[in-house]
Structures are given as structure tokens and as C-alpha cells.
Give the backbone structure.
Amino acid sequence: MRPTHRSVMALLPSRKMTRPMSIFPPPESERATKRLKLEHLNSDSFKNGVFLAPMVRSGALPTRLMSLKHGAPLVWSPEVVDKAILHAERVVDPVTGVISYNGKTRAIFTTHPVEKPYLIYQIGSADPELAVQAAKTVIQDVSGIDLNCGCPKPFSTHAGMGAALLTNPDLLCDILTALRRELPPEVTVSAKIRLLPSQDDTKKLVERIIRTGVSALTVHCRTRNMRPREAALIERLREIVEFVEGLGVDIPVVANGDCQGWEDAKRVKRITGASSVMIATAAEANPSCFSITPLQDVETTLIPSYLRLCKYLDNYWALTKFCISQFKGVRTELTKNEAHDLKSRIIKAKGYDEVTDLVGSWTGEADLAEIVNSIYSRRPRPLLAEPPPDPETPLGQFTTLAPVEDGSSGEDPPLATPLDRLNPEPPTSYAPLGPSTGARMPQPAIITGSDMLTPTPTPKHAYPFSP
Ligand SMILES: Cc1cc2nc3c(=O)[nH]c(=O)nc-3n(C[C@H](O)[C@H](O)[C@H](O)COP(=O)(O)O)c2cc1C
């Protein structure tokens, strides 16, 4: 049965769960205190997981939701440059709950309340003050802020952002320190770096970053000059992980580079000793790669429900098509030609209506409800305070990485980066503007957790905990 709009809403977090911490009544009991603690991320949330990496364009909202559905405990937003978000208007779609941060001509960032407890928002910045302002602009809709210190593209580095920060550690650390100082403690601050050419320099940088008070550090195991097709140097990470452990701080290091999925993350974990693993390209190809049993024949399994979800969420058709064009996975029933034909039908289509026959019917609301259910029914569910709304809901997957046994045998898959990887592009979601505030009826705060018609807060009042 197709769930009604109300039934989807019933699955979404209650007002109590999504409102900023400051409006909670003071804890009256141990249970209440415990619940408060569970409602936000901390360093432990970055341990033992396989996460979705930040990906401009490819890390769009529907892909993040699919990744969460299939077991990613945390998802990173695509990088958004600090200045780009500052003057965006925050608009909530009253029907779907989608929150759009609209710039003058396009949405800079879109999110949905259901992903908030797991969403790390990535900033591109070369200025501590702007970084803080940007973070405060979106803080009501995200759980952590990550600083991009690895993008090697000129659009990023020419302004001193991304990988340029790797050679400007004072600025890099100033930004992290400012973020940590100015943001409420419930919001994690983390960084994503690349390896430096020398191991010693990498360790020096890592130590400085760790001392800023970050909750986690992701290391993309390529140097700034390495091309995406070159195999990631994950073997270099073990020494860095051990170095961080030797600092006597309990800060998880997340390994990134060439991981192919949940199963393969065990290999990365074994080689690097890292606490968690982050996946970009393989998730771009199949967001169900976080599952113990990733979807096969994505053209007939993943893509129809992805299309339905995208249409329901009003995802820009061109962006939907782009993401779908990146999808591919193991084929068991489809032939290569069949898979190719299905994808090219979608890529040639000018809108959702032209692919109706591929999706059955447009029950995107049901697809969203399924995602919400999967997220809520995960075990363990360290990030949600309330029990799943429906006890009958089948259990989700156990998404944390089991410790890898020593001496595990078997051939490691080659450390190869897929050949068709696209390079990151200038930060923008490429989405059209979200609905204007006047266009539709507002969504109740029970869904959004905050007043949906409130314009993007000024940095000063962005969060009640702001100093
Ligand atoms: C399409 C695409 C977009 C990316 N966008 C970002 C980004 O916005 N921020 C970032 O830190 N890294 C970005 N990256 C780099 C990835 O997060 C990741 O570090 C890199 O691809 C290595 O991981 P992988 O080997 O699993 O692909 C992007 C990568 C791809 C393929």
C-alpha cells in the first residue's frame, strides 16, 4: 500500500528530536541526560564506520539518502565554499520537507531533516571568520562541520582553499580553531586532508590539526599532485594512525582512497589501522556499496527507486540524470546491452515524465518512507534517541565494521581507482532554486524541527548556543 503523506511524516523525527539542543528542557533524570548525549555526534560517532565521502554534484541529497538507507552511518555533503552560502535563503518545501539554501540563481545546498543526525557539512574556506559564518548559516540542519583541505582544483587552491591549506598550516589550524571555538559543542568539527609528499611533514600537520580539538580527521591517501587514477597510498596511513594514537588523544582517523564498499573496507582497515573508512567513487557508482549485500543490476534495482525518490524530492532533472549516469554495479541478470540501453534511455530523456515506464508508478513518497524506516531500524542506532516508530519494521543492517581478524586470508582487490571517475567540479549543487517561501504551504515544525519560514539566520543568531 502506498503510504500517505501523513504516514511519511509520522516516520520523520519528532520535534523533540530535531530541534536545537537549547530548547530541550533541562535533564530531569539520568535517562534524559543519556538521551541528550545521544542526540548529537561526537568523536565516537566517527569510529567503526564506512562513510559517504563529500562529492560535489555526485553527493546530492538523493544519493546521500540512498547511502544512509544502505548502511552508511554518516554522510558528508559536497563542499560548499563559505561565501556561497552566506546570503542564501533557507526555504523548506512544505510537502517533502526538503530544505534548500537558495542562492540568486540556484540552490547552493539542499538537505532533508531525516539526514540531519548523520550529516557532516563540508566547507571550503581560507578565512576563519567566513568559515564560522558559513557554518552558523547551516548549523540548524547539520550535525558536523568538515573543512576541505584536500581539493587540488585551481578554483579551490587559487583562493587559498582546499589543498592550498596543506601548505598553510597556520591558516588551516586557525580555521579549525575558530570553528571549534565558535560552534556549539554538539556540532563536531573535522577536517579532510591529503597526504603530504613526506611522511614526516604529514605527521607534523596531523599533530597540529589534532591539537585544534577536531572530533575526527579524514586522510585522503593521495598527495595533492596525484591524479585520481593513481592508486591511493593507503599503506602510508598506518604510520600516521599509530602516530595519532601515540599522541594520547582518542581522535579517530578515517581512511579514504580506493575503497570499493563495505566488504573492502575491512581490507582498508586492516592495512591502515584506521578507525573508519570513507568511500567516494565506489559510492558514486553504487550508493548501496555500504551494504553487506550491495544491490546488483543497479539499472533495474537501484535506478527505479532513485528516480522515484528524486522526482518526489523535486531533484533537478539534470542532476538526477548526472548521478544516474555514474551508477553501475555487478550485473547478474541484465546483459551489458540491456543495462546500457536502460541508462541511455534515461540520459536522453528530458524530464521525469519520459521515464515513467521504467519506474512503475511515481511512489517516491513510499521510497522516502522506506529510507526513513531503514535508518530508524538500524542496529545499533547510536545516533537516534527514540525507538523506531514501528516495532514491526524489519531490522536494518548492522553497519559498523567488525574488527578484522588477524591473519585474514584472501587476495586483496587491486588498489585501482575506476577509470571513468570524474574530477570534482566547482562547488555547487547544480540544483534549481528550491520552492519560494510563498509558493506552497509551510511544513509544520514537527517535521523541520525549526521554524521553516525563518530566513537564513544571521551568523550572530544562527544558533542559540553561539557565544
Ligand atoms: C565527483 C567527485 C567529487 C568530489 N568532491 C569532493 C568534495 O566536494 N570535497 C572533498 O573533500 N573531496 C571531494 N572529492 C574527493 C573524494 O571525497 C575522495 O577524497 C576521493 O575521491 C578519494 O576517494 P575514492 O578513492 O573513494 O574515490 C570528490 C571526488 C569525486 C569523485
